[in-house]
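call fold(seq) -> tokens
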Amino acid sequence: MKVYIITDLEGISGVNGCKADEVGNKIINTETACRLLTEEVNAVVEGLVEAGAKEIHVWDGHGGSNSILIEYLHPSADLFTSGGDLAPVTYINSSYDAALQIGSHAMIGTRDGVMHHTFNSHAVVNMWLNGEPVGEIGIIGLQCAYFGVPTILVSGDIAACREAKDFFDEVETVETKAGISRYSVLNYNPVKVRRNLKEGAKKALLAKSGFPVKGLNGPYELKVQLMCPNMADNYERAGAERLDHSTILLKSDDFLDVWAQRNGWGAGIHNKKFKIQRKASC
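ret:
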């Protein structure tokens, strides 16, 4: 079996944050956070290997894609990193059998979500897909569903796990911490968390057939409310519809194309550039 893991950093046990210049998030123990992230990923890989995974690819999905300590990464896993503007918006494709999200956080506006935000804590006020609020867990899940790959496990704080259960029909979750407010948190013991991650990943992969691919019918409309009108100016110049001074609307019949537009690609260009082939209706 071939398995895809995408990681974030905020949802790892022991990763702590504070406000950055009065706006957004700042991780205050970055060196420790990267080590803890790598250890949680390794625990997941151990569980997947015990469940029969033969090929495991990890995408370092946080910030500049430089959070996982590759020299300490489990030898059964290989690592995707993104650098610069010319990169695909996802590394998954239809060759994978299952996907996992590790270190997740809740969408912007979740009161008990640790360092909650939606993709950019210094830019995005809110985001809706086809009229429904959506965060990173949902968008990543739909990227996987686009290629017919089920999401079988999500880990993160309690709010992130709750969001995952609300979004997916069936998904295994592993809680790593409990949010008190955006920057105050009860971190669960990392040793216990890693044990739960290993067991959860093994259990989920062994039960892979019980996790359906998330469905969503097109066409797709992605509405993004931005913090600053200047940000909306950039989208409007690229062809987005301007709804008000700080809100833009992106449209496409193809989910990955509309998401690529949000990442700065012109309509239709991303999928052509990377020879994207959609496998299943989502």
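Residues 2-119+135-210 form a domain with the Rossmann fold fold (CATH 3.40.50.10780).
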